[in-house]
Amino acid sequence: MFHPRLKLFLWWFIPLILFLALAFDGNTHWDETNYLNKGAFAPFNLSANWVHYSGGFYNGRMFHIFVLHSLFAVLGVGIVSLFIVQAVMAFCVLGAGVLFFRTLKEMALPPSLPYLSSIVFLFLPLALYLAYKGLAETTAILLTALALFLFFRGIKKEDMSGVVMLIFSAGALFLATNSRVECLLTFSTLVIPYICFQSGRRLTAIRGLLWVGLMWVVLTVILGFITGIWSLEFMLRRSEVYGAKFAADSMDYPPNYIVAVLFGGGFWFFALLSLFDWRRTEVKIAWGGLLISMVPIALLADHTELRYYNPAIFSFALVSAIGIKYFYDWLKRKQALVKARAFILCLFCLLVAGNQLIRPFQEIGSEELPLIRMMHGLHADYDDPLIIMAHPHSTYAFARLCFPDSRIALDRDFEKTAPLMILDADTLAEQKGPIFYISPCGDKEKPLLIKLLNRFRGGGGKDQRKGGIPQDSWVTRSGDLKLVELGRAERYILYSVCLQDGKAAPGGGALE
């Protein structure tokens, strides 16, 4: 009925468009807005004090921040620029899916698995969450997919071009680990099981892995000695850094095994079905990678978010695709071909739709549209308002990025990167009005699952996170200020601010 090329185009075009439509949620993660703020405003040089902040937190994310810095250098800052950058991140996830498809083709897996695996990859809860997010995981997954493709392509070549591809694979992996260091684990989830279970190319794959590993070490050591930036630093010091700063906050996060279930959502049905075909080589490779990636994180991490399981994303997609093929082959033996295809397609779509229920469980730093509407309302009603904000990782960073020409002040000192900080009533009295204060309800918007767990355990609905960013600003605690609530937009509260002695009187009426 369709021309073969048109049919191929539709088989790719429809899932990709559906992915782009489903992935947008209008929210940011609290780390995302922090990276965006760094990329847009912070000086990208080694003397900037935030580079080695918190035990090397940014050291393993520098290439991702460099990518954001480059995008904002070209686009400028503002709402439109932000949405373009987030769209670029969505296409990074798409690119990772395409490279994953090409990688599985190079691994010589059964013909249907590369396509099925790449489609499952795109509709996993994590991939949908990362799209339109300026998180380091997004850049890292794309670069790791590139490293894997070049690796498997390289070990098939018997001439110098194979060595060149392995060198470029090491380069891509090096850049990936300077976005998220756990990409070393992501890379191993396909390479190590392939070496273990694909005997035909075992020696070639081992030599290729040694080449890539050696080049990665060389590049990492060179960068470390020249710049002092070590991608592994924060991971190695995480327990030391956070053990000194934070008490255990088990009330803030669901158990790791629950997050592992949410990672795959309804696709676990197909993943478990693949075990019925466990003798096949591709099943052993896929499950080997899944165990390598998920078990250490679930057992060793003090807590997990959905994105922490990103090393498992390729192997889980492959496992699920094997389960889909197994189920489809079983249906074909029981039903007519058309009915089998229709049933498997409907079941897949049902699971994708069901996975959307996982969305409220995921972490939110800022809700973009309500905050933008509140800011637009303020600027429509007042000329040059001073807007004080809390929470540098989310509310402040997002607003400053979208409204770079506004007078936006931070209510605390944070990494010395905020151009305007108002830390007490005396400093506030020196500013011209009108003056407003915007704060979200809580430092972070807790996922729905965490709220339910807290209620079940007898916890309250307020954010009780121990340590870290203070929950109450000096603005709300100061006896020298009078705050009048003017309006709310979702979780954001807008106050007018004036000194009790009347030296700063902004007036009222915004958003009333």
Give the overall average pLDDT: 84
Radius of gyration: 25 Å
The residue ranges in which pLDDT falls below 50 over 5 or more consecutive positions are: 246-251, 459-471, 503-512
Which structural class fits the helix and strand makeup?
Answer: alpha/beta
The total tally of domains equals: 2
Biggest beta-sheet profile = 5 strands, mixed
Bin the helical content.
55-70%
Q: Enumerate how many helices there are, as a single number.
A: 22
Number of separate strands? 7
Beta strand % = 5-15%
What can be said about this structure in brief?
It is built from 22 helices and seven strands. By secondary structure, it is an alpha/beta fold. The strands form two sheets. A five-stranded mixed beta sheet has the order 4-3-5-7-6. A two-stranded antiparallel sheet has the order 1-2.
Would you write up a description of this structure?
By secondary structure, this protein is of the alpha/beta class. The protein has two domains: 358 residues, no CATH class; 134 residues, no CATH class. The chain is 60% helix and 7% strand. The protein has 22 helices and seven strands. It has a five-stranded mixed sheet. A two-stranded antiparallel sheet has the order 1-2. Helix 2 packs across helix 19, helix 6 packs across helix 16 and helix 10 runs antiparallel to helix 11. The chain is globular, with a radius of gyration of 25 Å. The C terminus is likely disordered.
